[in-house]
Amino acid sequence: MTSPTVLTPALADFVTSHLSIHLAASDDRGIATLVRGLGCRRDPAATNRLRLLIAAPQAEPVLRALTTNGRIAVVFSEPESHRTVQLKGRDAHRVERDPDDTALLAPYINTLVARLATVGTPEAFVRALLHCPTEALCIVRFTPDEVFGQTPGPQAGQRLATGSALP
Amino acid sequence: MNPELSLDTLRSCLEGILPAGLATCAPDGTPNVTYVSQLMYVDPEHVALSFQFFNKTRENILANPHATVLMMDPDTAARYRLSIRYLRTETAGPLFERMKATLAGIASHTGMTGVFRLRGADIYRVLAIEAVPGHSLPPPVARAPLLPALRRSVDALSACRSLEHLIDTLTMRLERHFGIDHQMLLMADDAAQRLYIMASRGYASSGAGAEVRYGVGVIGVAAREQTPIRIIFPAAEYAYSRAIREQLEGGELAGQLEAGIPLPGLPEPSSQLAVPVRAGDRLIAVLYVESAQQCRFDYDMEDALVALCAMLGPCMCALQGDALEDDSPAAAHDHPAPDATAEPLRVHYFGRDGSVFLDDHYLIKGVAGSILRALLEDHLAQGRSEFSKREMRLDPRLRLPEVVDNLDARLILLSRRLADRSTEVRIEKAGRGRIRLVLTRPVVLITD
Q: Which candidate from B56, B67, B135 shows the least CB-CB separation from A128?
């Protein structure tokens, strides 16, 4: 059951504002695994979907799990403020990379360099962490159908009603 | 598990410098992903994750114990996936306290002071470690290796023939071989559940005699739990100076007395490490080192100091009983008699707590205070200046504990405190097993 209204404009703006990203998938044995994301943008074909950039060699177990059930969890965190949300979906799968996806990587990395500099992480470190050759870049597309506030604190993990204010 | 890829070689990833990611799976197959505030090394096969809030992660691991951590090396950005299995949660004890202290540092480092509160240390077995492919930076330039420093220090300590020499050697070797600029050695008084500073290095005043209660600050928690406590970021609630201040605010008379002793300790240390010194299962002392620099003491430094203290404890025990020959030379006895016409120094002794005041200024309390009173009493009554430790051990006025008397430690404390406070009363060595009381001013002893 997917709701076209989960990805509100405010939520979409937040998760595509070049945040720190991790995505997880679980296989049919109930083992979850995860990889770092390298960018996120709205799917131009459907406003309720997101496209996530990942490095295929790093994401191998995640991609394998996604092919079995499409279930995905993605956490987005703003390093300077710790504002964090988690989105979940059930239709995640790998799609062809297009030139706009590839074009997103460099600005994403540049923004992360600037964001993480505010918490003292050196630029060379961030560039090594997020480095991905174009040929290794792959795209996972999904429709968020649940959103949780995950900013650290006692309220972390609470489901956010559709359209409610971001944490 | 790949032998080259072990938790022991990846401990820098487990310092909490950068957050790790954690993926869990609900019984219905839904994945969940969060950031982990703290991922801590327990041993080569186990890690601990901080349990702070009841949330989806918590719910998931209680129902399905399998999870995956994605962690990174804070120097090289190399990433590793750990397949882990939840075993249990500890809510008290050494591991919990270590995690709580570490979390306080991480909270301050990440601007989360007041948000993080440790409910439990979740212990996981590590089933597999996978190096995630990708770019990484070259490893940082290696610092001076710690094993040669440890060996040289151990060699030097094993050559010591008196407790005082041992303590001085320890502090000097820590500075020279380990580059530790700020350090204290505190003796444990288990009956009173307190530690008192015996020696320090790197501060304006020695602080000899200043006390800290078990359970207070990094030092007190290390003593109570008998486990090393290490924090690599500023953590105000664990700082020694703050611990002392809070202890004083507790309003205890005994605590207030210590206000008279100038306290050493950096006001806002950025790295702290306290290591218990034990002999068998008995706590003898706590070694405390601190630095103004963040991340100054890593797991390897903790290992080295724990190993050094494992050797130090039995040495201290052996030397306290004069088991080895103290061949350090006696001080030359060429002191002039005090000027009999000078106004006498008023030494006021309170039997209630063994406290001693010199001209109304607090000096010391407890056993060390009782020792000074006995020495002065015998000096005034019998004209004696030299005393043997053997006779002191039998002296009921000293109120020494019967099992472990710590006489040598108390004498060192008393002599250092006198050296800090007064030039008119001193105690010094007078040959093997003997001490000498040296007065440069007449004394009047008032006891109540």
A: B135
